[in-house]
Structures are given as structure tokens and as C-alpha cells.
Write a structure and sequence with these properties.
Blueprint (H helix, E strand, L loop, with lengths): L1 E6 L3 E7 L9 E4 L5 H19 L4 E6 L1 E4 L4 E5 L9 H9 L3 E5 H12 L8 E6 L3 E7 L2 E2 L32 H5 L1 H14 L4 H9 L4 H9 L3 H25 L3 E5 L7 H14 L2 H6 L1 E4 L6 H13 L1
Parallel strand pairs: 1-4, 4-7, 8-11, 11-12
Antiparallel strand pairs: 1-2, 2-3, 5-6, 8-9, 9-10
Helix pairs in contact: 3-11, 5-6, 5-7, 5-8, 7-8, 8-9
This protein binds zinc ion.
Length: 312
């Protein structure tokens, strides 16, 4: 038995993973702006909680939304959590008394989708996670590609609009894909659309609750609200613009889209597929598939568990 944890920008997900690669009871914690020490406390407590239910645990895998020095297990820089220059592997191993492996969350997720999920038959796959931000991971030649230091696969910081809006969080970039097509970007676009269509279900949601989150846009779109559907199609086209550059550069067999925002499904992905079909280099566009993650938002937890198993 091992434990996989996926620390996202707004929440921590965790579960045990058994010999048959079945995930045990899930744990979910929402972050509330904890500082570095409190963040580490939450992660350690999550492991202890899962351990209390799962029984004997041999290792822990931890995915974080950060540039992780893979060989050292050090989180060097994070756009969304206070994890700059934190020797996570060493700190957690000491605290938990267990072997710990630390990786970028997107790398963990692409491993899951490659081994058991939507990229199972692919030697060259791109994973992109639409959450608070946009995470990514890359399989090249059947192996997770981490780059020279462990920092590769940050597709969220692919510049789509050279003079665009400031990237949210600590990224110094502008017009990054993350600023345009993340789960948070769906909420921002949804709020704008709600203001200009106050009589739509989306507009009424804004009036009732004072804010619109990406989740509400998706929910209303599934219920048939045309305003919400138009928001998802618009964000899907932005995603498609980013994917066009990615597939032209990498020629993957498959692009797997995960993260919380993939709950929007084809309402988002069809718009992205249309843009890629129209704008990517034709042979590349014809060859690539754009599919939802098999593991949905649990790809990171599953992948972190797989990494932990490799330690045993
Ligand atoms: Zn950025």
C-alpha cells in the first residue's frame, strides 16, 4: 500500500493506492491561504489521516504545483503555493518516517494517464490540467520528460497573446495560456458574460451569489444555459489556440485534458478541437486526438501513488 497526494492551487487531494492499483477512500482539503509551515502541516496530516484508514503504508508520492528539482526532491518555485526553495522530500520523509518522492503535479498526472488512462497506447503524449492554474506534463518516447532540471511541461505558461493580461500568481509572463483558459479564467469570463446578460441563468446566479466560479459556469452550461455555453466555447477556443502551438511543436499522438475544469467535457473540448483542426499544420492536426483524462481530477493522486510504488 502507498499513498498518493496531489497538492493543487486551491485544494489537496489524497488517497491510498493498493496492489491492484485501486484508490482507497479519498481525502480532500481546501487551502485557505496557509503559509509555508501550515501547508507542510496540512500535507503531513493528510498522510496520517489516510494512513490511519489504509493500514500499513510503504511510501508516499507527492505532486505539487511547482517547479521541482527532480533529483533533489526540492520545490524550487511555485506559482500558487508558498513552496519556493522547500526541500520537500527530505522534510516530509523525516516527518513521516517513510520514503517520499516529490514531483511536479502535471508530471505525476501524465504518468497516470500514460500507464493506465487516456494515453495508455501512446508513446508521445501531452497532458494539460485545467485547474486554478494550468499544469502540464509530457511523455516522449514512452517516458515522462522532465527537462534538464525537472521543470519541463509548463504548458500553462506558453504565451498565447504576446501583449496580453498579466499571468495570475507569481509568473512574470503576460498572455500565458493560464491567464486565458484555466478554471479560474472560466470564472472570470463567466462573470463578465453574466454582467452583460443579467436575465440569463448565469446572470441570475451572479445576482444571487455575488460571484461566478468556473464550476457554476459548467453546471449551468450542462443545464442548457446558452450564455454559459458561449463562455465555455470561448475559453475552449483560447485553449485550442494554445494547443495549436503545442501540437505543432511536439507532434503528440494524443493531448489529454484533465483538471477540475474538464467537467465541462465536450462543451469546452469541441471548441478547442475545432481551432486545432483549422489552425494547426494539417498533417499534425489530422493525426492528433484531444481527449478528456480518464482519471479526471484524480490523475495527479493516482500518478503520485505510482511514483511512490516505484520507490518500493
Ligand atoms: Zn505565466
Amino acid at each position: 500500500m502507498v499513498i498518493g497526494l496531489d497538492a493543487g492551487g486551491t485544494k489537496l487531494l489524497g488517497a491510498s493506492l493498493d496492489h491492484d492499483l485501486e484508490l482507497g477512500p479519498r481525502l480532500r482539503h481546501s487551502w485557505a491561504g496557509e503559509d509555508r509551515d501550515a501547508t507542510l502541516d496540512v500535507i503531513a496530516r493528510a498522510v496520517e489521516d489516510i494512513r490511519a484508514q489504509a493500514g500499513e503504508v510503504g511510501a508516499v508520492g507527492l505532486g505539487v504545483p511547482a517547479l521541482v528539482d527532480w533529483s533533489e526532491g526540492v520545490s524550487r518555485w511555485s506559482n500558487h503555493l508558498p513552496l519556493d526553495h522547500v526541500p520537500l522530500r527530505e522534510l516530509m520523509a523525516e516527518r513521516l518516517g517513510l520514503p517520499v518522492v516529490v514531483d511536479n503535479d502535471g508530471n505525476a498526472a501524465v504518468l497516470a494517464e500514460h500507464r493506465q488512462g487516456a494515453a495508455r497506447d501512446s508513446e508521445n503524449a501531452v497532458f494539460i490540467a485545467l485547474g486554478t492554474g494550468i499544469g502540464g506534463g509530457l511523455v516522449l518516447g514512452g517516458q515522462v520528460y522532465r527537462g534538464a532540471h525537472g521543470y519541463a511541461g509548463e504548458f500553462g505558461h506558453l504565451v498565447v497573446d504576446h501583449d496580453g493580461a498579466d499571468c495570475p500568481g507569481a509568473c512574470p509572463g503576460r498572455g500565458c495560456l493560464e491567464a486565458l483558459a484555466s478554471g479560474r479564467a472560466i470564472g472570470v469570463a463567466g462573470e463578465r458574460a453574466a454582467r452583460s446578460a443579467p436575465d440569463s441563468p448565469l446572470g441570475r446566479r451572479l445576482a444571487e451569489s455575488g460571484a461566478v466560479l468556473g464550476q457554476a459556469v459548467t453546471e449551468l452550461a450542462h443545464d442548457g444555459d446558452e450564455t454559459a455555453r458561449a463562455v465555455l466555447a470561448d475559453v475552449g477556443r483560447r485553449l485550442g489556440a494554445g494547443l495549436t502551438g503545442i501540437v505543432n511543436a511536439l507532434d503528440p499522438d494524443v493531448v489529454v485534458v484533465g483538471g477540475g475544469a474538464v467537467a465541462a467535457g465536450d462543451l469546452l473540448l469541441d471548441a478547442a478541437r475545432e481551432v486545432v483542426a483549422a489552425r494547426a499544420l494539417p498533417p499534425v492536426a489530422r493525426a492528433v486526438r484531444i481527449v478528456p483524462a480518464r482519471f479526471g481530477e484524480e490523475a495527479g493522486v493516482f500518478g503520485a501513488g505510482l511514483l511512490a510504488r516505484e520507490l518500493l
